[in-house]
Amino acid sequence: MTSYRCHSRLYKGKRCDVFFHKHPNRSLLIFIDLIIISPKNMSLLGKLEADVEIKAPAGKFHDVFSCRPHHVNTMSPDKVHGVDIHEGDWGKEGTVITWNYTHDGVKKTTKEIVEAIDDKNNSTTFKVIDGDLTKEYKDFRFIVKATPKPNGEGSVVHWTLAYEKRNAQIPDPATLLEFAVHCSKDIDAHLTQTHAQK
């Protein structure tokens, strides 16, 4: 089961009204809060979030993004083609890495710094510092958190994409959120298959 929601922050204290937006050519329904003001003053700050249920334990899923993101290309090879390290060490905050991936049918690269690793809450935060995303966004962060299910079987992965657009014409990165969700499912399939073979 996967759920999505999207919202923008308040702009100068003005309230937000809610409306619904169905992504073109998809059955995905995204809930969007936007400030009802003139287009020139529309808030450029936004946040998209998604939950996806997986079978793998939260700790194992967290370990992939916090300590060994360079293994993601073997778990989701049609989406991620390689992750290279530029500074620091795997599994350490402050490490700089580059993702090579295909998004919306286009090969792209994104350089990120591992901004925060929270092993207690199984959460990792990546801040984009260079690459294709910086062409459209002044600021962009990926936050991925895995939470064990109450019944002890599997976990729920929560993705947050927090960003600031360079201008109001830049679309919300809904397809990138979908990319993260599908990548999570690929990683889950790899983790559960490896566990089953042991």
From TrEMBL:
SUPFAM superfamilies for this protein: Bet v1-like (SSF55961)
SMART domains (UniProt xref): Bet_v_1
Pfam families: Bet_v_1 (PF00407)
Domain Bet v I/Major latex protein: 43-194
One BP annotation, GO: defense response
PANTHER family found in the cross-reference section: MLP-LIKE PROTEIN 423 (PTHR31907)
Name this polypeptide is given: Bet v I/Major latex protein domain-containing protein
Organism whose genome encodes this protein: Erythroxylum novogranatense
Lineage: Eukaryota, Viridiplantae, Streptophyta, Embryophyta, Tracheophyta
